[in-house]
Write a structure and sequence with these properties.
The structure is a single chain. Helix content is 21%, strand content 25%. It is α/β, with parallel strands linked by helices. The chain has a domain of 91 residues.
Length: 513
C-alpha cells in the first residue's frame, strides 16, 4: 500500500529560511488517517494575513491555499485519494511543516463515558476485559491508527487543540485504548481491508450535557433548567456534608467537578477535533443520566443534531450502545439476581427507552446489550461483543455488507385480541427465539396502569402476551427493569431491545436534573 511521493524539493527550499508561525491542532499530525475520497479539512493558526498552502504527496494531489484571518485562523479542504499510503503532507506558510506516515482510509470517532473508555487492559485486575490480553497480543495492525484525547480537559470556551497524538496500532500502543472502539475499528479493517483511524474522546461518570455545545442547552427553555439544577444539586449536597461547607477550596467529589458543567468537555475535548473529516461516530453513554430518561428523549437527539451541524458533513452515521443490565449495590456487596414477584421499573429502563426512540433520528443505529451486563459490575467485561455489534451497523449500512444481520428484534406494533396482546417486531431475521427455554421478561397491564408478569409465547414473527388475571389488557412492557430477566432474540443471536407499548407518564417526566 506504499504510494509515497516525495514533497517537491522546491517546496522544502521555499520554507527553509522562514520564520515558524504556522501551527496545527494535535488531531492533524504524523500517522493520521484522512477520510478517503473526500474534501478533508486541514486547519491551523498563522499570522493574520499569512498565506498558507497545503499539498499532499499522492498522485494527482492539488495544493490548496488560504489566508489567515484577523484572529490567525485558516482552513483548506484537500481532495483525498482512495484508501492507501503512506503519504506525506506539506503545510507551508512562513514556515513549513511536513507530516509523515499519513494514510487515507476510514475515520471513526468514539465517545461517551467509562464503558466506552474502558481499555483493553481493563480497569485493574478486578475489572478485566474478557479476551483483552489476547487482543493486545494480536494487535499488530499498523494500518489502524489510534488517537486518544487526554481526558478531563474541561474548558469554558472552545479550544483550538487538545492533548493527544496519532499512533499506529500495536501491542505496545493499544492496551490503554478503548476496547470497544478498537474492536469496532478492527472489524471495519478486517472487512474492508483499508486503513482505519480511530479518534477516542471519553471521560467516565459524565453527563450528556457536558459533551454538548453550550448554546444548545442555554437556548432551550427546558434544557436550560439543567444548569440551575446542577448548581442546586451541588449546594444541597454541600449543605448535607458540613466537612465541605466551610472549605470552599476543598476538592469536591467527581460529580461536582468543573468538567461536569454544561459544555465543558465539548469545549475541551470535542471542539478541538472539529472539523476533522470523519466517516461517522460510535457512542456509549447514559449511566450518569439514568434518572432523567424523559429528558434524554430530547437531549440525546439534540446532541447528535448539534454535532452534525458543527462538523458540517451532513447526517453522518451515529451508532450508539443501549445501556446494559446492572444492579445498583454497595462496592463490598455481592449481588445475585432473583426475579421479583412484581415488575420493578427503574430509571435505566426509561433511559434505554429514550435510546430506542433515538433510532427515529436519521442514520442512527443501536447495539443492544441487555444480555451483556453483570449484576455486580457497572463495567461489564464483555466489551468485544459490544464492539462487534456496533460494527454490524456500520458494515451493513456504510460498507455494503447487505447480507449481515445488524440488529436484534425491535418493537414494531401491537394489537389487542380479546384478553391477549399480539406484539410484532422488525429485524426478526431467522425468526424469533426464546434463548435458553421459556420466554421471559414480558409484563402486561390493564387500564389501571399496574403491570404484572405475563405469559409470552412466540408465534412466527410476533409474541402473544397474556395474564389470566388481566381480562382487558392495554399495554405491554419488555425488559423494563434495571437488571431484567429477558431472553428474546432473533435467529442471528442478537437480543431484542427493551420497549414499552404505552405512552403513560413516566416517573422522570419533568425532572430537570
Amino acid at each position: 500500500m506504499n504510494n509515497f511521493i516525495a514533497i517537491p524539493l522546491l517546496v522544502l527550499c521555499m520554507a527553509s529560511t522562514a520564520v515558524a508561525n504556522v501551527t496545527l491542532p494535535s488531531i492533524i499530525g504524523d500517522n493520521m488517517v484522512l477520510q478517503q475520497k473526500t474534501a478533508s479539512a486541514i486547519w491551523g493558526k498563522a499570522e493574520p494575513g499569512e498565506k498558507v498552502s497545503v499539498e499532499g504527496s499522492w498522485k494527482g494531489a492539488q495544493a490548496q491555499s488560504a489566508v489567515a484571518d484577523a484572529k490567525g485562523n485558516w482552513m483548506v479542504k484537500i481532495k483525498t485519494p482512495s484508501a492507501g499510503g503512506p503519504f506525506s503532507l506539506a503545510i507551508i506558510g512562513d514556515n513549513m511543516i511536513e507530516l509523515k506516515n499519513v494514510m487515507s482510509g476510514e475515520v471513526w470517532f468514539s465517545g461517551g463515558q467509562s464503558n466506552m473508555d474502558m481499555p483493553l487492559l481493563g480497569y485493574g485486575d478486578d475489572q478485566p476485559v474478557t479476551g483483552g490480553t489476547e487482543a493486545i497480543a494480536n494487535a499488530d495492525h499498523p494500518d489502524i491508527r489510534l488517537f486518544n484525547v487526554e481526558p478531563l480537559k474541561a474548558a469554558k470556551e472552545p479550544q483550538f487543540t487538545c492533548p493527544g497524538e496519532w499512533q499506529p496500532c500495536s501491542p505496545e500502543t493499544v492496551g490503554m485504548f478503548s476496547a470497544i472502539a478498537y474492536i469496532f475499528g478492527k472489524e471495519i479493517h478486517k472487512h474492508t481491508d483499508v486503513p482505519v483511524g480511530l479518534i477516542h474522546s471519553c471521560v467516565g461518570g459524565t453527563y450528556l450535557e457536558t459533551w454538548m455545545k453550550p448554546e444548545v442547552i442555554e437556548n432551550d427553555p427546558e434544557f436550560k433548567k439543567i444548569i440551575s439544577g446542577f448548581d442546586q444539586y451541588k449546594e444541597d449536597w454541600i449543605s448535607k456534608n458540613p466537612e465541605y461547607k466551610d472549605k470552599p477550596d476543598a476538592e469536591l467529589p467527581f460529580q461536582f467537578q468543573d468538567f461536569e458543567r454544561t459544555g465543558r468537555l465539548y469545549n475541551g475535548m470535542i471542539a478541538p477535533l472539529i472539523p476533522f473529516t470523519i466517516k461517522g461516530a460510535i457512542w456509549y453513554q447514559g449511566e450518569s443520566n439514568g434518572g432523567r430518561g424523559h429528558q434524554y428523549q430530547r437531549l440525546f437527539p439534540a446532541m447528535i443534531t448539534s454535532w452534525r451541524e458543527e462538523w458540517n458533513q451532513g447526517d453522518f452515521p451515529f451508532y450508539f450502545v443501549q445501556l446494559a443490565n446492572f444492579i445498583e449495590h454497595k462496592p463490598t456487596e455481592e449481588v445475585k439476581y432473583e426475579k421479583p414477584a412484581m415488575p420493578q421499573p427503574h430509571g435505566w429502563a426509561e433511559l434505554r427507552n429514550a435510546q430506542l426512540l433515538t433510532l427515529s433520528v436519521t442514520n442512527t443505529g443501536m447495539a443492544v446489550t441487555i444480555d451483556i451486563g453483570e449484576a455486580n459490575n457497572i463495567h461489564p467485561a464483555n466489551k468485544i461483543d459490544i464492539g462487534k455489534r456496533l460494527s454490524l451497523w456500520a458494515l451493513a449500512k456504510d460498507y455494503g455488507k447487505k447480507d449481515l444481520v445488524y440488529s436484534g428484534p425491535l418493537y414494531k406494533s401491537m394489537k389487542v385480541e380479546s384478553d391477549k396482546i399480539h406484539v410484532s417486531f422488525d429485524h426478526t431475521d431467522g425468526g424469533l427465539v426464546a434463548k435458553g427455554g421459556k420466554l421471559e421478561g414480558f409484563a402486561i397491564a390493564g387500564a389501571d396502569e399496574k403491570f404484572v408478569w405475563a405469559d409470552a409465547v412466540i408465534d412466527g414473527n410476533t409474541v402473544i402476551i397474556s395474564n389470566a388475571e388481566i381480562k382487558e389488557p392495554v399495554a405491554v412492557r419488555y425488559a423494563w427493569e434495571l437488571f431484567p430477566l429477558c431472553n428474546l432474540y432473533n435467529g442471528a443471536d442478537l437480543p431484542a431491545s427493551p420497549f414499552r407499548t404505552d405512552d403513560w407518564k413516566l416517573p422522570s417526566a419533568g425532572k430537570a436534573f
